[in-house]
Design a protein that fits this description.
Helix content is 52%, strand content 11%. It is α/β, with parallel strands linked by helices and 280 residues long. Strands 1, 2, 3, 4, 5 and 6 form a six-stranded mixed β-sheet that branches. A hairpin with a 2-residue loop joins strand 4 and strand 5 (213-214). The chain is built from ten helices and six strands; from the N terminus they run H-H-H-H-H-H-H-E-E-E-H-E-E-H-H-E. The longest helix has 27 residues, at 215-241. The structure holds flavin-adenine dinucleotide.
Amino acid sequence: MSHQAGSGIDSPGVQLVAERAVASFPVRELTYFLDGGPEETRMRERFEAIIEAEPIFRRSCADYSLSRPERYRLAMRKQLRLCELIKELQLTGEYATAGSDVRALRLAVHDDIGTDLQLLMFIPNLKATFSDEQLAHWLPRAEAWEVLGCYAQTELGHGSNVRALETTATYLPDSDEIEIHSPTLASTKWWPGALGRTANHAIVFARLLVAGRDLVRLSLSLSLSLSLSLSLSLSLSLSLSLSLSLSLSLSLSLTLTLTLNLTRAFTTSSCRCATWRRTG
Ligand SMILES: Cc1cc2nc3c(=O)[nH]c(=O)nc-3n(C[C@H](O)[C@H](O)[C@H](O)COP(=O)(O)OP(=O)(O)OC[C@H]3O[C@@H](n4cnc5c(N)ncnc54)[C@H](O)[C@@H]3O)c2cc1C
């Protein structure tokens, strides 16, 4: 006897139902545990039902033979429908917050959309780094998707090594503007994903140059002199309680640690972000 794929008695779906029925533990309790609680399970199931009823979110084997432009356009249509659903369902949560209604709706889609970083990286970074005045201008536009942003940190020659970024952000006092420049091939902003071509704005991580001075390098020399003065006071206090030779070796190793820590702290905080309007 032959069975149609997926519907026969031996199909994975039927086998799963049979296995679940004889589970030795309360399946629903485990579901609650995995979701985070009964309320989260109810929310997930509600949103999955809504998403499954929407033709645009249905997946088929044909999706695998789409060209990249076709897949990109389909993802944009999915993002648009998601935005409409958030309004229709009057969801108010933050996408970046685990357990929120907006995030639960997005997770019910079970697909890459390519514009996720607008909600996951761009808007949270605006909130974390902008002044109240800047936020009042940019946030409503970003939340309305009028400003669509990408996160331009990685460079072709500098992945995790953010301290070595080469792109510069030069402050121009005459026009009160910041000029962004990637002067070499290695400094080309470069990362996977679709937002680089979709976005009309970006958060750019760069070395901040003010009046011809690189503030990252300036902070490096500052941290060095600070750590030297700290090591001096440490060796003095140690020499009071320990023998002279011991205090000398201890103070040397402490100096090294302090230098590394301070250097890291200063360089991290010296990476500023800037927004610029793409004109091309
Ligand atoms: C799906 C996806 C989306 C992304 N989107 C963005 C985006 O929108 N914007 C953006 O700016 N970036 C984005 N990134 C990040 C970016 O593309 C790089 O993957 C990331 O910066 C790491 O750089 P790399 O791949 O060159 O790895 P490398 O930095 O070369 O690291 C390679 C390996 O070396 C290790 N390593 C690196 N430095 C050190 C060290 N000092 N000591 C010891 N080990 C080290 C790393 O842990 C890693 O295992 C994205 C990445 C992914 C995967």
